């Protein structure tokens, strides 16, 4: 009798060691260290705890060529509910976890990586809250940085070139700049349509939505999704690829309910009106962001299109997005240049 | 009875203490780590708190932002506390405010890479005795706006100074309930601009040495449009003589050097008791939005505009015919005899044919010896008619004063 209870205590303490600190997600104050949440069995190696499930998006936001790993945590027995073209309505106590990192050498990922920051979106009673933890130099812990942080990093890219970045960990307000919908902090990525792809889980390769249904994270989805495409995948049409890219990179602010709605330029996947998508649309309060150009998109004239001009720029008074980027996204610029060039005038 | 009032006093005392206990003042002075210190303080503020920056110069590499309701962020004087952004590397503005009931006062923001102060979606924002300036003089590479509240309600700009913005020094866009007063806008492209906004009082300001002094504009394809109820009074819109340095593509890029006041596509605008002179192209013009648009909800024509009891001085002596179309058209129509007040005369087609309702007519009364020019669009289209009309008395009429703006 005594032995079993001791064993139970040991088992219990081991499993609880690997369990998420659910209470902390709901608390008003954020802990100083990321490890306090116990989202990871091994924080440094980023091995998730039980119930913390990895996911990927079909297309993702460009963040200075950093790599991202994402996980979702739902409180036991609770489900997220489906909302068409919106992020799932996650239950109170959920967490979205995203770690930004650079490989040491993109040609050989086994050489390891440098973790930059882990961002959390925590679903509290009062709504979502965003916070970021910046990794220390020894890479064994990430600490809260409310005012943000600048990290200088170098890595070797696919071509063997040394790249450097002045990486900005956003402050709490900057999180909201992108994550506000009708002035409330809201996740951007986990919409059903963005998850509608196969993921290689440890035990199987299966569509993420199927997996989430199996795990009782969500109910069956009955409607057809407006699924975007992977903008890098050249099997898809240029138009589809560009729309998907603009949706995930711009559409969270540039939508009728986003932070940039005063501009009248809406780049989310569901916007159809040509003027609002930027075609021959004149700038409003763009200032020198216009680069001397007359229209957001001037069909056939990529070099005279404000949209492309602001993607290329790294001048803080000109560039788009306004934060989260200090380098230009060459591959996307090339794609959009081609797209505008091929547009009928 | 006595006991009751005693109790009341006691509760008031408790109330007073609980307020003073919870609200706090944080005071910071310049340091090597100002960026992080001030940003962290701005994030940690709680409603009721005050953040005070002592006199001195503060340097930033990143923009600052504030998202806490009901706080005061202040310096120690418009020339004493300087927030310097000349080394800014990231952030699209100097200071971004996204919360309600905020007061900022008594500091200066210099050389921001984008806009100096941007306020989005605020319900209550007071900007008092602040200065935004680009110190290298008028340049295309200067940030667009000094003061830039947008989609906000109850906006007060009082005693501010805006210098060198490559778009507008003071720009209020898509907002309502607005007061801009006692302020100075100089060496900007537009001094003060009220755009797509409802209920604005602009008074006791000086707009000089800009390209254009005071603009009241409305643009299509936006969430809030149909700007109306704007009063512009007791201002000096004088000596606006800076070449247009706005990057092309922007609407203000069309404004010719030397315009005092422009009203474009708004309704219910009352301009009175202003001093308007020294504007080399034209002191005051009332114009239609000049571009094609497919926006069916947009009215490109100004209507119910009243101009009265203003003091006009010399104007039109140096028309900037090289910028936009306004100056060139006016110069040609007037044969070089430029008027003080210009109306382009363009009306919706049905009004052109069947006349304008009385309450939508342009009224111009008691403006001393001000000269006037308008175009009769029908005559303009027919041969052998002179479309130019100059009789200002035709526009005399009874003034229906617009209501005063009262902020909540």
Distinctive features:
heterodimer, A: 345 residues, alpha+beta, six-stranded antiparallel sheet, two-stranded antiparallel sheet, 8 helices, 14 strands, 21% helix, globular, B: 408 residues, 20-stranded parallel sheet, twelve-stranded mixed sheet, 32 strands, elongated, disordered N terminus
Topology:
The complex is a heterodimer of chains A (345) and B (408).
Chain A: H1 2-17, H2 22-26, E1 40-42, E2 47-48, E3 52-55, E4 67-73, E5 95-103, E6 113-124, E7 127-135, E8 142-144, E9 149-156, E10 162-169, H3 172-179, E11 180-181, E12 184-185, H4 192-195, E13 198-200, E14 205-207, H5 208-214, H6 238-250, H7 306-312, H8 330-342
Antiparallel strand pairs in A: 1-2, 3-4, 4-5, 5-6, 6-7, 7-8, 9-10, 11-12, 13-14
Chain B: H1 2-22, E1 25-28, H2 34-44, E2 50-53, E3 56-59, E4 62-66, E5 72-74, E6 81-84, E7 90-97, E8 102-110, E9 115-120, E10 123-133, E11 145-150, E12 153-158, E13 161-163, E14 168-173, E15 176-181, E16 184-186, E17 190-195, E18 198-203, E19 206-208, E20 212-217, E21 228-233, E22 236-238, E23 259-264, E24 267-272, E25 275-277, E26 282-287, E27 303-308, E28 311-312, H3 326-334, E29 341-343, H4 349-354, E30 363-365, E31 372-375, H5 377-381, E32 388-389
Parallel strand pairs in B: 1-2, 2-5, 3-6, 4-7, 5-8, 6-8, 7-9, 8-10, 9-11, 10-12, 10-13, 11-14, 12-15, 13-16, 14-17, 15-18, 16-19, 17-20, 18-21, 19-22, 20-23, 21-24, 22-25, 23-26, 24-27, 25-28, 26-29, 27-30, 29-31
Antiparallel strand pairs in B: 31-32
């Amino acid at each position: 009798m005594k032995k079993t209870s001791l064993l139970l205590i040991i088992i219990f303490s081991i499993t609880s060691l690997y369990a998420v600190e659910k209470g902390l997600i709901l608390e008003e104050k954020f802990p100083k260290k990321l490890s306090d949440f116990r989202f990871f069995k091994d924080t440094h190696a980023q091995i998730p705890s039980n119930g913390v499930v990895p996911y990927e998006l079909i297309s993702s936001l460009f963040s200075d060529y950093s790599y991202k790993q994402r996980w979702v945590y739902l409180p036991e027995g609770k489900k997220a509910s489906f909302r068409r073209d919106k992020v799932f309505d996650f239950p109170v106590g959920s967490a979205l976890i995203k770690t930004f990192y650079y490989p040491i050498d993109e040609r050989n990922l086994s050489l390891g990586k440098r973790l930059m920051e882990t961002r959390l979106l925590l679903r509290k009673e009062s709504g979502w809250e965003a916070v970021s933890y910046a990794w220390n130099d020894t890479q064994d812990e990430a600490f809260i940085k409310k005012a943000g942080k600048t990290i200088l990093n170098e890595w070797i890219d696919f071509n063997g070139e040394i790249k450097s970045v002045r990486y900005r960990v956003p402050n709490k307000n900057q999180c909201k700049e992108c994550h506000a919908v009708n002035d409330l902090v809201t996740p951007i990525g986990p919409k059903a349509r963005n998850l509608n792809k196969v993921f290689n889980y440890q035990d199987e390769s299966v569509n993420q939505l199927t997996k989430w249904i199996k795990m009782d994270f969500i109910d069956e989805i009955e409607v057809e999704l407006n699924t975007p495409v992977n903008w890098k995948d050249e099997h898809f049409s240029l138009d589809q690829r560009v729309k998907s890219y603009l949706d995930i990179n711009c559409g969270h602010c540039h939508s009728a309910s986003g932070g940039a709605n005063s501009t009248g330029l809406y780049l989310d996947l569901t916007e159809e009106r040509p003027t609002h998508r930027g075609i021959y649309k004149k700038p409003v309060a763009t200032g020198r962001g216009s680069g001397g150009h007359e229209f957001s998109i001037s069909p056939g004239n990529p070099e005279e299109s404000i949209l492309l001009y602001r993607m290329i720029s790294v001048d803080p008074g000109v560039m788009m997005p306004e934060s989260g980027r200090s380098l230009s996204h060459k591959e996307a610029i090339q794609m959009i240049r081609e797209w505008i060039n091929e547009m009928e005038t | 009875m006595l006991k009751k009032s005693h109790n009341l006093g006691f509760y008031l005392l408790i109330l007073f203490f609980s307020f003073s206990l919870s609200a706090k003042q944080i005071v910071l002075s310049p340091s090597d780590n100002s960026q992080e210190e001030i940003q962290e303080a701005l994030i940690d503020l709680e409603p009721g708190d005050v953040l005070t920056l002592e006199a001195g110069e503060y340097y930033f590499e990143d923009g600052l932002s504030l998202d806490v309701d009901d706080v005061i962020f202040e310096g120690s004087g418009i020339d004493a506390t300087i927030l310097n952004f000349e080394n800014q590397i990231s952030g699209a503005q100097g200071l971004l405010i996204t919360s309600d009931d905020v007061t900022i006062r008594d500091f200066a923001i210099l050389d921001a890479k984008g806009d100096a102060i941007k306020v989005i979606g605020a319900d209550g924002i007071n900007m008092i005795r602040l200065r935004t300036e680009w110190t290298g003089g008028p340049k295309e590479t200067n940030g667009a706006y000094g003061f830039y509240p947008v989609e906000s309600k109850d906006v007060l700009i009082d005693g501010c100074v805006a210098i060198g913005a490559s778009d507008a020094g003071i720009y209020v866009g898509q907002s309502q309930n607005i007061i801009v007063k006692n302020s100075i806008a100089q060496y900007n492209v537009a001094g003060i601009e009220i755009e797509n906004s409802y209920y604005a009082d602009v008074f006791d300001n000086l707009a000089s040495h800009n390209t254009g002094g005071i603009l009241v504009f409305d643009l299509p394809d936006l969430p809030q449009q149909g700007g109306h109820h704007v009063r512009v009074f007791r201002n000096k819109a004088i000596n606006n003589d800076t070449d247009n340095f706005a990057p092309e593509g922007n609407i203000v890029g069309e404004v010719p050097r030397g315009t005092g006041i422009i009203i474009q596509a708004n309704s219910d605008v009352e301009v009175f008791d202003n001093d308007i002179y020294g504007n080399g192209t034209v002191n005051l013009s009332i114009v239609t939005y000049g571009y094609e648009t497919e926006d069916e909800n947009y009215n490109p024509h100004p209507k119910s505009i009243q101009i009265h009891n203003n003091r006009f001085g010399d104007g039109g002596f140096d028309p900037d015919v090289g910028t936009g179309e306004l100056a060139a058209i006016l110069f040609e129509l007037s044969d070089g005899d430029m008027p003080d007040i210009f109306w382009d005369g363009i009306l919706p087609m049905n009004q052109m044919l069947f006349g304008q309702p009385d309450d939508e007519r342009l009224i111009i009364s008691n403006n001393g010896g001000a000269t006037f020019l308008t175009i009769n669009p029908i005559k303009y289209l027919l041969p052998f008619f002179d479309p130019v009309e100059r009789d200002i008395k035709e526009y005399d009429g009874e003034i229906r004063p617009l209501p005063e703006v009262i902020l909540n």
